[in-house]
Amino acid sequence: MTETTSSEWTGTIDQVILGATKEEGGTRSCSYRIGGESDLPLLGTVPAGIRQPLIAFELCDDLHAWPQIVRHYVGDVADDPAAWSALAGKEYGADLIRLYLTSTHKRGFSDFNAVGTTVADVLRATSLPIIIEGSNEPDIDSEVFQSCGEAGQGERLLLGTAEASRYRSIAAAALAYGHSVVAQSPIDINLAKQLNILLRETGLPHDRIVIDPYTGALGYGFEYTYSVMERIRFAALKGDSDLAMPMICSAFDSLNVKEVRDAEPDLRDDAAVQWEFAAALAAAVAGSEIVCVRHPKTIPLLKEALSALNSGVRRAGGESP
Amino acid sequence: MTMKALDIYKILPKKNCKECGDPTCLTFAMKLSQGKADPALCPYLDDNAKSVLGASTRPPIRLVKIGVGERNIVVGEEFVFFRHEKTFVHQPGILFRVEDTQPEDEIRRIVREVKNETFTRVGIDLRIDGVAIGNTSGSPEAFGKAVEIVESEADLPLVLKAASVAALDAALVHCGSYAPLIHAGDPGNVPEFAQRALKHGCPIAVRPKEFSGLAALIKQCTDAGVQDIVIDLVPADLGDFLAKSTRVRKEALARTAPEYAYPVFLETRDLGKADAGTYLGILKFASVIVTDPLSPAQKRAALTLRQNIYTDPQKPIQMTPGIYRVGNPTKDSPLLMTVNFSLTYFTLQGYLEATRIPCYLLLVDTEGLSVLTAVASGKLSEMLVRDSLKKFDVENLVSHRDLIIPGYASPLSGRIEDATGWHVLVGPRDAAEIGDYLDNLGKQ
Fold first, then answer.
1. Interface pTM (ipTM) of the complex?
2. Residue B81 CB neighbour total at 10 angstroms
3. Fold annotation for A12-314
4. Nearest residue, CB atoms, A40 vs list B83, B246, B300
């Protein structure tokens, strides 16, 4: 074991719990505890019971703007978010499901009951803990987050995405139904801190916030996010408690980039997988406790790499990862 | 410990003789304190000053060169732990591995791939840097033959993965004067390997049995007069490499342990995975990465990641301001305006090409600032747009007077109309939506 010099750090990352088992008041087959680091990412000692980085598989309830390569690879199951979620857990091997309610992005969307039904269906279809990404339109946020918050009551969902310009509806739903919140700021450490303070002022405790630094795809600004994540984690370890939250990173545009679109047809899946694999691995190294992918084939590669990366992390109490 | 410039000045001869190349002893002292000059440049240092300065003014990580051709690899002389502290300087060399047991045409194919294949991103050509040759056969003759084949194909930086002194000698016959990296001086052979490195002026990699044996091997090399050393951390897996390379970089920068003041060598085979190993090496301080040949997808991702991580955070890559064409636009084609930050341009260009709608793109000179920061700082103004339209003679390029501006520049729309007389249309904030936007525009 190689010792790193960790004496310079004074801060510890907050622990956030995702998902609730039957004993914990939910219906999930497991729950995850993330955060708890007091050293650089994937080094040093973390408290017992921590499991990270986690791999979230991203899917949606309306494929309109989803990368075509995903639809092409997964087939018709992509039309049914519940069945797709079940597959993501059982066959793809994801740790978490991140469901984007893209149906709400349609102009004039108003079928808020359908949102609740979709969330309930997905919760029935998979037993994994779940991240729900709601609307991106402030006018309907309140109804959408109320509806999915209620449908997931007791399940300790992670709800997204709060931004500085719109965070009240989502914080209200998280507070009312016991969920946590994804707090996204545009690749800026100061704005990340500011949003965390705003969320705290709504009454949302620190240990129910996950920072999303916003992520450009590899080759399309990814290095800005990489460095902002390193800066956020550095500040947190130096003692800034307003930045001491776990992070989530999704290089969501990876499968749309020119390098993937223009790849030779028989190499396109490979190009997509490596493009998001490299970014997800880098995000984990920069401190992301949750990394998100959209191509099912990325998951096994990432799982193996993250497991090997964890070999240097000690668990308090000697528990193995 | 690092010394302050004035403390260094006190022990310099203060002759201002200029023989070091600097105008005064004080300016030389300032360079020494930043690790940017070598104390040996001063011919008048006494022994005490030499030993004090030798320990405190050398660069935190030694500069090492591999190869002598146009495609040589230069690594080391890094000054930071996080790239945001300043920048990473010398990107790692990535070398594809061949074996002396492989058929000749297979070796030739891999060498040609390294030599010829270029992947262009953001206007910059990205390449794999060199070839490592493994003495898998154990036979000196086979190794010498393989090196000869590689040398006959290309003038590339090489890593010689030799198993014995005899094999190394057989290889150096063919490439000894081209500064290949010798891998590796180990506890069994380091006196002989170091002697060869000295004789041929080659850099050498040292590989102990255990990480803790590094210092002893390095000392054997330096005692033999070899300074150009890279260190193999004998990592057991990805996590072990991360822990060791983190420690090495920290101690090198803190100048606490002289054995860590060298660039790090990584062979991805030690980590089990060529793709993940290469990505981690790029991210976390590897300077020479030897890997089995990567697939096209892995190669492109690795080269792009390396480009990202080694971009200077304070110097955004800029495009030359002017008119850029997407497809074959005519006088009626749409005209879009944006900033000359290369990332903005290439992102937008990618999406514009996907729309298959020919158009003109006017890049105005914001000195590489993004739209958001250029608007906030005032760098992007109605005057700049007006002057750019004039400078690039846009009036004669299109027959219409509609200018599409980025969504984040919408606060300027009125002022741009007033200053230019053009009709301003506010486009989307996100380049990904430009296709839908232009489609809708066409329908109106």
1. 0.96
2. 18
3. TIM Barrel (3.20.20)
4. B246
